[in-house]
Amino acid sequence: MSRSSLRREEREKKTRKINDSSKTLIFEEMYSFVSDPGTNNKYQKSHKEEEERQSKHMCSLSGISSNMWWQKCKAVLGQSFNLEGIISTAAVVTRDRHLAIPHITVPDISWIDWVELERRGFRGVIFDKDNTLTAPYSLALSPPLVPSLERCRSVFGENIAIFSNSAGLYQYDVDGAKATSIEKSLGIRVLRHGTKKPAGTAEEIEKDFGYATSLLVMVGDRHFTDIVYGNRNGFLTILTEPISTSAEPFIVKQVRKMETCLVNYWCRRGLKPSGHNLLLEAMQCVKDPSTL
């Protein structure tokens, strides 16, 4: 064999050896990644942590969604179901029937003579919202009531507010979003409170207005909530007829009928409302809207 042939064979052997070594290294690296317990555990741990993170994220989203759903349900159910109202109704029916009788009854607020009320010493007005100023769940003031509300505003200035079981109640309007929407729409501030009418005192209202309740007027459409609350706390109480009952829940309609039947029956039997020092004759503050 020639010397050149020997050299060529040696070069080929070296090349095959280098290739075999490279393959061995590559195989060992791949094998070590798969089989090495430390590296494998790190990979599995990282993968498991990622799965747990995604799972927690999904649970968090689910929890937020469930919480929002529950808050909405509580708000809707809360307006239809009033535990404090049920307890108060039992007390009114059995022993405090006079609390459900308003000092003044009118078809709507346009019949109220705001100037005469102010002349007699009253210094502020608190309105219920649903079916007193607006249709149920609406943000728009009932059009026929616009002139009367403007007269009220011109007489009492900033001393008017809304006190409602559907907005401003901490339990169902946690962030005050409903109250803020109403304030923007109607231009009347909404009082925040922690207890549904007719339960609770009027201490916060007195602090807010700076007057005793005997100098304030409570206007609403429900005997056993607005009127009972107002009479129990010393307001002058004015009952209006509901603006519209078509959008009210069935249970609210039935309770309203029951309230009206009971109050009408008690009045036929001679029951009178509690007296008020500033207003001996209720009709003196009631006028036909066409004359105002």
From the structure above, extract its key features.
292 residues, alpha/beta, Rossmann fold, 2 domains, five-stranded parallel β-sheet, 9 helices, phosphatidylglycerophosphatase activity
Mind sketching the topology for me?
Elements lengths: L2 H33 L1 H44 L2 H12 L9 E3 L7 H6 L4 E4 L18 H11 L3 E3 L14 H10 L16 H7 L6 E5 L2 H10 L3 E5 L9 H19 L24
Parallel strand pairs: 1-5, 2-3, 2-4, 4-5
Structure description:
- This protein has 292 residues and is of the alpha/beta class.
- It has two domains: 3-59; 82-291, 3-Layer(aba) Sandwich (Rossmann fold), CATH 3.40.50.1000.
- Helices cover 52% and strands 7% of the residues.
- It has nine helices and five strands.
- The chain has a five-stranded parallel β-sheet with strand order 1-5-4-2-3.
- α8 (223-232) links the parallel β4 and β5.
- The protein is elongated.
- The N and C termini lie far apart (133 Å).
- Residues 1-21, 34-54 are annotated as: Disordered.
- GO terms for molecular function: phosphatidylglycerophosphatase activity.
- Residues 1-20 have a biased composition (Basic and acidic residues).
